[in-house]
Every structure is written in C-alpha cells, then in structure tokens.
Amino acid sequence: MLYYTLKRLGLAGLVALTVSFISFGLLYLSSDPAIAMAGETAADADIEAIRQLYGFDRPILVQYFDWLQRAASGDLGKSYYFRTDVSALIGERLPTTMTLGLCAITFAIVLSVPLGVAAAIRPNSFIDRVALFLSVMGQALPSFWFALMLIVFLSVSLRLLPVSGSDTWLHFVMPTIVLGYYAAPAIMRLTRTGMLEVLSTDYIRTARAKGLRPPVVLFKHALRNAIIPVVSLAAVQFGFMLGGSIVVETIFALHGAGFLAWESITRNDLPTVQGLILVFSLFYIVLTFIADLINAWLDPRIRIK
Amino acid sequence: MTIEPSSTTPKSSSVYTRFVGHQGVMVGAFIVLSIFVLALFAPILAPHDPYNQDLLARLIPPVWDSRGSWEHIFGTDHLGRDYLSRLIYGARISLLIGFGAAIISGLIGTIMGVMAGYFGGRVDMVVTFLITVRLSMPVVLVALAVVAIVGGSLQVVVMVLGLLLWDRFAVVMRTSTLQIRSMDYVAASQAVGCSTPRILMTEIMPNVVNNLIVIATLEMAHAIILEAALSFLGLGVQPPLPSWGLMVSEGKDMMLFEPWLITIPGVALFLLVLAINLMGDGVRDITAPENRN
Amino acid sequence: MSENVLDVKNLSIEIPVAGGMLRAVDSISLHVEKGETLCIVGESGCGKSLTSLAIMDLLPKKAIRKVEEMTLGEMNILNFSEKQMSDVRGNKMGMIFQEPMSSLNPSFTVENQMLETLSRHRAIVGAEAKALVIQMLEKVGIIPAVKRLRQYPHQLSGGLRQRVMIAMTLLCEPQLIIADEPTTALDVTIQAQILKLMKNLQNDFDVGLIFITHDLGVVANIADRVAVMYAGQIVEEGSVFEIFDNPSHPYTRGLLSCIPVPGKIKRGEPLGSIPGMVPSLVGDFSGCRFSGRWSGDDEQKKNSNINLVAIDNEENAFKVQGSESHFVRFCCNECLEKSYNSKQRKAS
Description:
Chain A is an all-alpha fold. Chain A has 13 helices and no strands. The interface between A and B is large, with 60 and 50 residues.
C-alpha cells in the first residue's frame, strides 16, 4: 500500500508539473504579453517598461521556473484587472465553488446510484427504462440552456427560487441541479453496468447458495464490488464540475471561482486565468489521487499485494 | 419516445436488420439526416436571409402565438432577423463544429491510442501520461481562455475543440488495440513477417473501427454542446453568425417576456445532440453491447 | 427408502433461446441416500450443472423448471417460496462450485464470509461463531486456521480456496451437498487431495453428496452410485461397480472406452473417442439423440451377456437383469434395437 501510494504520488506530481507548464505557456499564445497587459493603445515606451518590469524579455524557460518557484510558495502574481494578488482573489472565491461542487456531486450521486442499482436489479423493467430515458435526456441537455429554462420556470413562473446571487442556500438549489444533472447520467450508467456485471459473477451465486437474504446479497456482496469504479468516476466528474462551474456560475451570478474565470477571461486578465487553470487542474489531480487511494482501500486486491 | 434496450435485439440476425430494428438508431439517424439536409440546402430552404435586419419587424413571436404570422414561422429576433432562417443556417455551424472537431480529435486520439496499445512499453507510458495531463485540464476554461487570447471565430473554435477532445478517443483506442493485439491472428501476421504499418492497417484498424465510430459520434455531440456553451458565453463563434448557442445568448435578456427566443434554438440543440447520442449508443449496442456503460 | 436425503421426480428444464425452447434437461429422476455419493457424469452441455442449480433453485431467471416431486429429507421443497428456499440453502443443503478462483467474494475476508453463514442460519455470532469457523477450517485441513481468517481470497491458492468453500458449506452441517466439478479447475495433485478430503468429510458428517463431473477417473475414486447423463437425459444409472463392469448403454460404453488405461493402450494406438456431435435440443425434439454417434463396435458386438427387463409405464426403460439398482434408458427404439436383440429383452 505504501509503495502504491508513493508511486501514485510521484505520477500526480509529474502531471501537476506538466499542467503548470502548459498553463504558463498559455500566456505566450498571445503575441506579446506585454502588449496584452498594457493594452493595444499603449505607448511603445510603456510596453517596454512593462516588459522589463515583468521580465518578459528573458528566455521562456527562465521565466517559467521563476513563475513556478513563486507559484509553489503560493504567489500566483498580480491580477491585471483587480490589481490584487491572484492567490488571494482565488482563495476568496473558491469556497463558493467548492460548496456548489460538493452539493452538485452529492445530488448526482444520491440521484444516480440508487437509480442505477434499481435498473440493474430488473433489467428492461419500467424503472430501467425510466433510468435509461433520463440518462439519454440528461446527456443531450445543454447545461446553459437547462439553467435558463429553470430560471424561467422555477424563479419567474412559479416564484419558488431566487434568480441569482449567493446569499442563502436557496440560491444554490438551481445551480446544484444544473451542475449535478450533468454528472448523473454517467454515474448512473456505470453503476448499472457495474451491478449487472457483478450480479452475474460466481461469488454472487455463492452468496445465494449460502442462503443469504437478497438485501445482503445485493448491498453487501454486490454493491461493495460494483461501487469501486463508481468512486473513480465520481471523483473525475467532481473535477470536471469545478471546471464546468464557469457556465453555471456566470448564469446564476454566483460569485465563485468560475465566475471569476469568466470575468478575467473577458478582461484579458491572464495571470488570473493562468492561476485558475492551475488551481482547477491541481484540484482534479488531488481528487483523482484521493479516489485511487479510496479504490485501493476498497479493493483488497490492490491494497494487499 | 422509446429507446430500444439492447438485450431484446436477437444476436443472430444480420447487422443490417439489427440496425433497422433498433429504434434508437433509426430515430437518431432520421433526425440527424433531416438536420443535415436542412444545413446542406439552407440557401434554398431558408425563407429569408438570416443576416437581413428589419428593425420594423423586431421580436415577432412564432406562428403559434396569437401575434405571430406565417411570414416568420419562428418569429424574428431583436434585430428583426427571421428566426427560422437563422436556425437553418445555424445547423451548418453546429454540424461543421461537430464534424470538424471530431475529425481532428479523432485523428490525434486514434494515432496516440493505437500507438500506445500496439507498441506498449515506453510509448504506452507517454501516451497514458499525456491523457492524464489532458484530463486534468478543465476543458471549458482552457477553451475559453484560448479563444479569448487568439480571438473567436469558427475556425478557431473547431481547432481548439479538436485539440482538446482527443482524450476519449485515445483511451478507447488504446484499450481496443490492446485487446486486438493479443489475438492470435495478429501474432500470426507478425510470424509471417508482415510489416508493422501493414498489421496496423489490415489487422488492427478494421477491428477497432466500430469503437472509433461510436466515440466519434459521442464526441461530435460533445463538441456541439461545447461550441454552444462557448458561443453562449460570448467567446465562441462571433455575431452575426447564427450559432444556436449565440441565439440563446442573444435571446436571454428577453427570455422572461419572449421565452420562445431561447426555447427554439435550445430545443434544436437538444434534438441534434440527442439524435447523435442515440446513434452512437445504438451503434455500440449493435456492434459491441458489452462496452455499454 | 426413507433414508433418502433427496428425491427428485421428473425434473425438466427449458430455456427460451432464439428459435424456440431448449429442452436442456428432459424429465430426469434421481435420489441420494444418506451418506451416499451420487456421481452425475456426462459431457459439457448435457445438463448436469443445470440439474444441480435446479435442485438449489438457483437457475437463471429465464430458465423454466418443471418438476413433479422434490423432497429434501422430510421436507417437500417443491413449492417452497424464495424465502423458504433461502432458509434451506446453505443450511440443509449446500453447494460447492467449479471455480474456486471466482466463487469467493474478493472484497471480504475468509472470516467474514464464513461468519455470515453462521449468523444467517444458526444465529451464532461472536467468539462462539469464530471458534466454530476455526474448527471447521481445521477439519478441512487448513492449519493453522487463525492465520487464514484475516486473509482475502486473492491471497489463497486455488486448493485453499476450495477448502474454504467446503468448510463454508459444511458449517451448518447440511443433509445434502452438491459439488459441481469442484476439482476440475485444480492441479492434478491438489485434485487428489481435495477428493480424498471430500470423501473423508462425507463419512464424518454422513452427508448425501451429489458430485458432478466429466472425469470418469474421479467417478471411480469417489462414487457409490453413478448416473450417466447424455443430452438432457439420464441414460444409465447404477452402482459404481455395475457401471464400470457392465456398461449397458452405448454412451456409457463409449465414455469408458475413452479412458486411457496405462498398460492396456499401446503406443501409436489412437485414444478412444465418441464420434459425432450432440444434437441440438431446441424445439420439440423427438428424433434419436444418439444418431451419428455409434462406433462400429456397438452395432456388431451387441451386449451379449446382458439381459434387460422392461420397466412398467416407462418407454424404453429397463432394469438390468440380476440387479436391483442398475437401470438403462434409451431415447428411442432405434438405439435399443442397435444395442440389444429381442431375445435379450423381457417384459417385467
């Protein structure tokens, strides 16, 4: 287990390093970061001054290692637009996004795992068809449009929920639904196939031959094995959700990191965008790392070599 | 709408009859084909010029509304442009994005995946690593950032999505190739001295092509949704192009008074993506039901 | 006959497949006495595994079971509900499967999987249960048992896993154990150990054992009585000596001729085989199940030393003269005519 953890940790570190390089390199997609910073209309002298000040005239690798060194100590630079520390800016917005993400993934799991299990117990039954129908529908629904339709129906027509903002828990209901439904179909399908597969294994037959009651067979023997891949998927989906929060937060004017991303992208605030990509990626890497550890813990075949 | 479950399809019948007998595929194919025809013959089929503004005829509701008329079946937008014509031309954008992005990402992903699966070892390690790196980057954020830096246009959006969405191709192609690679007939080809490119083309590719088609359809749908989202956020296809995502975005300010402004392009988007997904799921059910999940 | 732990009359199993109903098992009857080992022998697909699952009531959902009579000890389990059957399974009768590698749940320890049987049927938990489990593991030759308790199936070898399965099945001291090819997946040396173990345990526990196999060597080793199955029917039934000394059905004789006997076969001589294929049993199958499978021997050398006595009310079913326990059944007249001339057959 220790060896596995260390190996996995090394991989995560390498991935993080590569991601940091890519998000740093993004800055150089634009022709000249100094111009981007100073604005198209700035005087040549000003641009040159900025270039000197920020060190854009040095070789790119030198700049990268310099940036990496500061990033590692938590300094992601200064926002062009907000004129404050990027790390502070992100730190201030992240709790909202995390709350939203946690709510959404919980919503997705609570909705899809029981549905997937029920569908697997009786394949081709009514409930299986309902589950399949919902998942096919869910995958085709563009989240921004779904969000707008929810606003029209739940907020405006029925006046049940506030349209936008992040003041009360009610403000989180619609964003949670929109963000959560997107992950639900995949989790539901994986639970269903996983359960179907496990239910046809020899050890389930053994469990039944031992005379165990159906709930024990189902929830102890089957679900325990079927849930292992679902854990990984849920972690991946959680990571995707944080990245996808940009659409939802923009529509519902939820002032989280996603909203910040949109603000800084439309304002060409590259250090903030860079910082956000890095933070979201790191988050995903940490999540999948934790998911792998949970997997290993759940599956004795990995845990005990 | 009903979706035919895979297990009721008899395994013994020919692929052709299974395709025809599969309701999901048939419904999906019908919708996709219809939209494709609309897009192809847009100049003939569209009743009006999609870019022609008529400020006197702004925000006319669709024909089913009491204020609507047959002149503009789906009404007009805030600049007085015919909504139906914009919708029909918009299908061109969505399909172009879908095909374009799927082709680019399919090429990248297939090459990487097949290489990793066939050669294994170091190549596999590198590809697997690249997949992990790619997966850990937030797609929407990166796409938005790149489009914002480079500037939004149809070509840029196709390129960016194509360069971002290859991960699933690579993952699936890698596993499929790994499976095929361990088959005896591949070993037999190697034993009789077939060259590697020849084995890849004659033994590996024909056997992974089913999976490739499935992933390509699903990624097409994915790309279409992403383009719509980017355009909705104002960082995708730029006005006055009639992207469906852009139409929703332009209509959202008035959605409380004229909800059809977002309903119509939204439903179109939903139908197209649904139909493509139905086709993809159906092809998988028919050719490899065991891969379903 | 009150000593019978299991009595099954006219068991049929049908499975819907593309093109009709597959009659996988066709009205077979069998019984097992207390302390007796009944071997069911036959080739793959003859219906022997389905028969065992049907007795446990663990058939796949789509399979249709028809049976006239089914008693376990004193209990008529024919119309038992699923709930009643689950009280019986693992308690009054247990089953050991072919694949020790996949028959134990990979996510739980040996201890966990054994304890749950005890708590389910005997309501024994805690230290008492653990002591019983250890005792049982030691009985199946897992010594020291304590070390194995905390291990997971993947940490055990195939032979050990099958021992655990056996111990688990014996925990509630059932009346009947069904073993479906329990040694097929094991190495030959381990096979012999497990067979010996099962034989000893059967004596100790005085349990009825149905042992399903395709290996006649195993049959000779462990069986008291043998039922030979072919294409969904029991074609011959008798004590192990009767079957090996006096095989009366051409299929049994074919099977026996396939065993290479060291010393008897010569170098270069082909091993015995039964020609042809089992017919498809889909739909209303009424033809001869054995057509195309005759070896030249059968038709020329009829069983000259065996005489048959017809059994009342059963078409083409006979008792071998001079034995009370040796039966043979033919699927059709043609088979019968080819194997025995009319002089050898008597009415009862």
